[in-house]
What does this fold into?
Amino acid sequence: MSTCVPTRTEDPSHKPRKAGRGGPHSPSPPGGGPRRFRIRGSDFSASIAVFLIALPLSLGIALATGAPLQAGLVAAAVGGIVVGRFGGAPLQVSGPAAGLTVVTADLIQQYGWRVTCAITVLAGFAQLGLAALRVARSALAVSPAIVHGMLAGIGVTIALAQLHIVLGGTPQSSAVENVRALPAQLAALHPAAISVSALTVAVLLIWPRIPGRTGRIVRKIPAALAAVAGATTAAALASLHLPRVDLPSWSSHALPGMPQGPVLGLVAAVLTITLVGSVESLLSAVAVDKLAAARKVPDVRVPRADLDRELAGQGAANVVSGALGGLPITGVAVRSSANVSAGAVSRHSTMLHGLWVVLAALLLVPVLDLIPLAALAALVMVVGVQMVNITHLRSVRRNREMLVYAVTLASVVATGVLEGVVIGIAVAVAVALHRLTRTRIAEDEQDGIHRVRVRGQLTFLAVPRLSRALSHVPAGSECVVELDGSFMDHAAFEALHDWQTSHVAQGGSVEFTGRSGSRISEPASETHGCCRPWTPWRNHHCDGRPERATAHPLADGVSSFQRDTAPLVRDELARLEREGQRPSQLFLTCADSRVVTSMITASGPGDLFTVRNMGNLVPLPGVEGGDDSVAAAIEYAVDVLQVDSITVCGHSGCGAMQALLSAPPVGAHTPLRRWLRHGLPSLETMRSRHRSWARISGRLPADAVEQLCLTNVVQQLEHLRAHDSVARRLAEGTLRLHGMYFHVGEAQAYLLASSDEHVYDAVFDRVAPASSSLAKARV
It folds into this structure.
């Protein structure tokens, strides 16, 4: 079965040629020649914006690690070009990142720069191996509290180290040592360095907040570039004597050397860079997907990230960067978000930004040598402080993960990144086990009804206390069991089920509810078995059909309704009986048993005025042999019920459409064949040379039956407009017509893109799933 998911292309400027009748479109030019390499203006402008942010940050991160400053430029260029070309996230920008600053600084101090380059190469090969094993999604299984805590810990460590340079001193070997040395550093301040750093921080904080038209104009220049440029200019005009950027000749640039040192230490170093860089890159790629999807302008569909390919691209870039004497590379959220905000639509913007870095490294060395190191340190310090993200902190607190976050942050600052993450994972596991075993069970009695309240996850560890509480419920009494938890294991289920069976047999009653008091399904009893009446489509699998309680399945279904559903809808149905029906929509669909109207529309009593017939047909008014029942329903819905809209819904595999294709009912004498004559206009429209075939979510129909099903929906909308009551309400602007197609095998609905006017080139668009209840609750 062919899928109906829209095809996405990495080149948004490329549009498929319009297909002829029944012919598939081809994404390639005639003759199968290659596509022209084209760069859109939005990609070009976005690459400039990202380059202006990446240039000072790359130098600052290199300074923070203690690596040669050129190593930051090498990593930025390789990250842009290599990952941009081979990565799986088109809009993600990669380069030297603050997340690896602490790790890299420790490696340089322990092994030296050339060995650190070799470790970067080995980490790249490790990432390529992980990509080949297709385990990229596994990195997303790490608790967000651990990731956010790790990044916050790295940010604190960076800020503490750079604070010494901002004050005119030299950072120590660890965060703890930096804290200890801070009083002495405060006693020996360097006014020139503090002045330049203060100016840099002030511009960074004020630049995005400049109001009015002036602010809109100046914000086209990135704050990082404005801050460093402003500080450099001020230092030059004031003739301040400060350490400045010193880019040596590229001929003396250090390349990797053979790894030397303890084998276990080297392996741990490779694993640290591999894991931290991979997790940060993959999380950043997921975040960039969300940013691109939420973007309104430009309205261009960008492919979702292929995480395994992105991991392979990161690995290739680390191999190249390390071999050329560059810093380790990861996906960078700040630069990536700037790329999305600037309007990038393809990977060309990322690759161009890498090219601009190469040109700057070759041609702008005299300009870069004017930058004070204090300005770069202030820039990186602000970046480190911003890594302690308030939004992440609120999210962690809301999800009750503050302990994991705080322990991970403190451990990273005190012991290092890898050790801190391991400690964070251990704490997260301990917290999860604690929550799993912490179950509170209480019982009370009010107005003769006994209540047993269970708070937390219900596992075998809580079964003894649960059984003790249930044993206190008197035989033959009414009991409500209130369950407030998201998990129940088999032992707890069996304990509840056995007690319920025994209590009901003794004349009592049992009702299971959630914390809000809403009734939930009780454990399946032996009477009903696995498959309940009229619900074989539910999400379960049975080896065989159980015997029904009676020989009449309809009676079984009605009995289940009276027991389970009627108590929940009785009040609403009583209200509808008193006030009468006021549906908002007439829903005209096929009589096919697979099309469950209430299920696919999530509607309930009083929502839809439904008309069903073979083939969801609307006979033209006055046609010979017409059926007034459909016309009467339309007139009643439009004139009496005053519905707001009418929807005609077809579906895949429609038997009426198959019958029309196989044997058009010419001169038919049976009731079925006479009825199908109302579908002949749809058949003629499909075969007409003056109308193109309908399309479904960016593709042509799978076969002639699907094409006729789609065309029939459009044709029946035309028939609706011929009815006087419908035409009058349409002219008044008080009625809307909609077309809908339901693909049964895929459980996917499609809406006709335009139904208000005569449609000659019909396109049915896929209906996306609504936001989940969990997402709404969190909002």
Q: What stands out?
A: Confidence is low (pLDDT under 50) at residues 1-35, 521-549, 772-779. The CA atoms of residues 752 and 764 lie 4 Å apart.
